[in-house]
Amino acid sequence: MDEERSPLRQLNEKPVCKEPAEKSALSRLPVPTVKRPLPGKEQSAGQSNLRQPANKRLLDQSDDKAPPNKRKMVSASVVGFKPRPPVMSQRPAVNPVHKTSAATVAGGPSRAAMKKPVAATLKPVAPSGGTTSRRPGWDLKGKMGDMQMKVSSYQEQVRNTKTQNRELKEEAERAQRELENLREEHSALLNKMSDMQSKVTSYQEQVQTISQENQGLRERGERAQRELEGLTLEHSALLNKMSDVQNKVTSYQEQVQTISQENQGLRERGDRAQRELEGLTLEHSALLNKMRAYEMENQELSSLKRTLEMDLSRERALSAQRLQEVRELTQSNAEQTDKLHQGEMERRALHNTLLELKGNIRVFCRVRPLLDGVQQQSSFEIQPQDKTIVLVKTEESHIGKEKELHKYPFKFDHVFPPQCSQQQVFSEISLLVQSALDGYNVCSFAYGQTGSGKTYTMEGPDVLAGEEMGMIPRAVQQIFQAACRLREQGWEYQFTASFLEIYNETIRDLLVSNKTPKKMDYEIKRASPTADIRVTNLKYIPVSSEEEVLGLIKLAKQNRSTARTQINDVSSRSHSVFQLRIEGKNSARDVSCNSILSLVDLAGSERVQKSQSTGDRLKEMKSINASLTNLGLVFSALASKDGFVPYRNSKLTYLLQDCLGGNSKTLMFVNISPEIESFNESLNSLRFASKVNECVIGTATANRK
């Protein structure tokens, strides 16, 4: 393609020369006297063929794109005009004369046409819209425009041809690479085939060599046999001759000596033949022995084959019997699986019925043991059988003379005395945790004054192991152990964990490191009326083991907001909410379920006179008391069955909306302190718990499909 010349270059390379006749003919052409219009002025319809800015641009572009050594040579004159001087500043208002190349002159009328009279060449100009009329010979501008259009067309064809050539070259290179790959594969195959052929040839040569050796041995034995027979015949003839020529012994002594020598040679040959015959005999005996051994081995193999066939028939019969047993066991296993599934469904139904009989919102009371160094405690009586706790306090009468004993009895679903362990407390809520795997939403939260043991009950100490583990790690442990047992029945579970806190009515993600520079905005939203409540931008982390969840709980404990107050050295200044979303599926039964296990540690209520909080602590205390007050308003509305429940008054109640008044099984821990200074706060907490215990929020249903 580099050696080919474009049509424009071919036109430019034509020599520009004019015959005298052409010069004379061109001199007789009429000279246009109409001035070119100034830029910006409009032309009439009759003069539209004189304006051709597009053609000028095409000609200038083709001139600029060509290499410097191949640009068009500008003609010195057109139709007898002298070239204008290059100074453009003399008449700036007039357009410069168009460049005319040798291609324009070459594209003019032929020599025969130039010899015609001028009158014969002048023809009326065709209208601008026509395309079939031929231009007159004097219309050099029109012809120049036509030639420019042709040159543009040729250039476009050349560009298209170059593009196609480039594509063909790329295809040829790809084909060449594929051909080289095929050649390499072909060469490798040829090498392999050559190696195999050489091995086959070697084996064939070995077989041929052995066959030739055997053939040579046979031929040598036959020759020796024939020679032996011949010698025997010759020996007999010689003996006959010796008996015939005994009288001629003297005359034939030389002949006898010669014959004796020959006889000696024949004897030697006979000895050699005898030795060879003996060797062949031994080889024949060895071959016979091998043949006998092969026959005996063949007999043994035949006997072994018959034995194996008998064993195979017995194994087939035994296999058919075992297959029948396996089918029977499989059928029995399927029946047992169905019974087990039905038993599991009945267990879940009875379990749910039992929890419904106990109440949809259950309230447990737990009394914290006395701290070290504190000896005085308030008077209270606990009756575990009646599930009752009675606060007792001696107060002065109204007139101030006599002391009266006041008792405040409260009855709950269960009352835990101070000596109860974490395991004893969890054993009472383990059935509620099991409901989460059955497809029910479950919520458990701890309520009480600050320092009453709520965080210890829900989370336990800093070390999440041993007998002091709280309700959250024990619930997670039970969930994963039960999921492992249910996996044998065809259930597969997926778990997603989240942990947040509500601090001063602001949501914080406890699973995000404090080093994160960007602060996210968290909002509580519900995508649809039937969807669960979620928090935007909150981290929901998939977990697959108990250890992963315990690691997240440890991280959340480090990030939670705590501070020292007059009542508690390490006081929680926020409400923490741990949620474990559970999705279960039994593909064999085409059954699925999903639920949410929510475990909440509420911040403790305080009084300004007792805590003596100031500054940030005072602001935190007001926010905590306000959210707990809104929680009490929600329970009051639920207990009185009001049409409007103020869930949106605080972010705590809005987040726990489904747990408090929706489709959920809810458990509340009310924690109280035994100190006599905390009597009033304990009394208020027990009164609030009694109000919650009176609420009826309806029957929870399983989220199954």
Give the averaged pLDDT, no decimals: 75
Morphology = elongated
Structural class: alpha/beta
Give the percentage of residues in beta strands: 5-15%
- Low-confidence blocks of residues: 1-52, 68-83, 85-132
Output the number of helix runs.
17
**Percentage of residues assigned to helices:** 40-55%
Biggest sheet statistics: 9 strands, mixed
Q: What gap, in angstroms, lies between the N and C termini?
A: 72 Å
Strand elements, count:
16
Radius of gyration: 58 Å
Account of the protein in words:
There is one protein chain. This protein is of the alpha/beta class. 51% of the residues lie in helices and 14% in strands. It is built from 17 helices and 16 strands. The chain has helices at residues 7-13, 20-27, 53-65, 102-106, 111-114, 118-121, 140-244, 253-358, 422-437, 454-458, 471-487, 546-559, 608-611, 616-639, 651-655, 657-661, 679-693, and strands spanning 361-367, 379-383, 388-396, 403-411, 414-416, 442-448, 491-503, 506-509, 524-526, 533-535, 541-543, 562-563, 571-572, 575-586, 591-601, 665-672. The strands form four sheets. Strands 1, 5, 6, 7, 8, 11, 14, 15 and 16 form a nine-stranded mixed sheet that branches. A three-stranded antiparallel sheet has the order 2-3-4, with helices on one face. Strands 9-10 form a two-stranded antiparallel sheet. β12 (562-563) and β13 (571-572) form a beta hairpin. The model is unreliable at 1-52, 68-83 and 85-132 (pLDDT under 50).
